[in-house]
Design goal:
18 helices; 387 residues; 65% helix; disordered N terminus; mainly alpha; 2% strand; Serine Threonine Protein Phosphatase 5, Tetratricopeptide repeat
Amino acid sequence: MSGSKRGPKGGSRPADVGNSSSLYERYKDALRRGHVAALRGRNDAAIEAYSEAASIAPDRSLPHASIGGILVKMGRLPEAVPAYERALELAPRDETALRGIAEALARLDRRADAAGALDRLADALEAGGRLADATDAARRGLELAESPERRTRVGAFAERLGTAPAGDEAAQRALAQATRVLELPPADPVEPEIAPEPVGTPAVATAPEPDVLPEPEPEPEVAPAAEAEPEPEPVVEPKADIEAATAEQELEPEAAAVAPEEPPAPEPAGLGIALGAAAEAHLYAGELTEAHAGLLAAARAHRRAGRLVAAVDACDLAIGLAPADPDLHLLLAELYLDHGWRTLATDKLLLLGRIAELDEDRATRDRLCSLVTERLADEPRLVELCA
């Protein structure tokens, strides 16, 4: 029969049902490959996979917003703007695209245009009942481009936040930041850009945060200003310390030997190095599962010892063995936060959350959201992901 397929019991179903299901699976697979490539830092491969997803489902905004995010990460800001604009043509209130284009425009010094995107984001967040997040977006827009309308709007948001319950930390934080901006004298308004920069003019972009940074050099000690040095005060040992020292000297050698010193605990840094060496031995022997587990153990040991750079290095080696391992990416997100790299951590968790959603991996999502609650509860995109 034309236009239908026979079912197992003689029934029929439209042919386009099977085609639609197949297209959706191809779309999900392309997205998944894009997310995994982005997590591994393979930016060109991520763009290729996201472009494939966009061609399979041309009505979806997510692939275009994802391409924009990769281009921003690569510092290709002028190319990121059209990608975000295409996403917003398909979904005018797409939060990821609005945040992304605002960031790209601000870094291109197109402050008025960036503020306009933040105005739209504030509208979308307010419509969704997220008043604190809407206030943050409106306040950021005011900081970028002063205008009486924006100042009035931030004031109205702040007034509404003033009635929020005392335990609402997000509302209190947003209120405090909005109040701080409103108390500043109005800045000169920023005129909107009349014409874009000529084609071919390189844009000055802020370099993305590196995955690994060298350990900082110790700060040099600053000599105090020359002053008359006070006479040092005589050191007076407390009476109790003198008595204890005297008593220790009076101990007989046999008595002192009764309580020998306990052996020192193994040095945590040495443990991480030993685990890393064992993992590399497994790797050279072709024992990839054992090598991956050993690298994760080494990374955790390095982290406990405070050797964050070594911990990230171990994770980077493990990515080549299991690029989609959620344990590995959650550990990397924690290390990024330990370093203070909030943007890198947020981007990684957003991608990991999308993969978990595509795979219907509830356990990974729960662990991710536990980390968000503990360390990134003020990041609205992650809070929305875990809502």
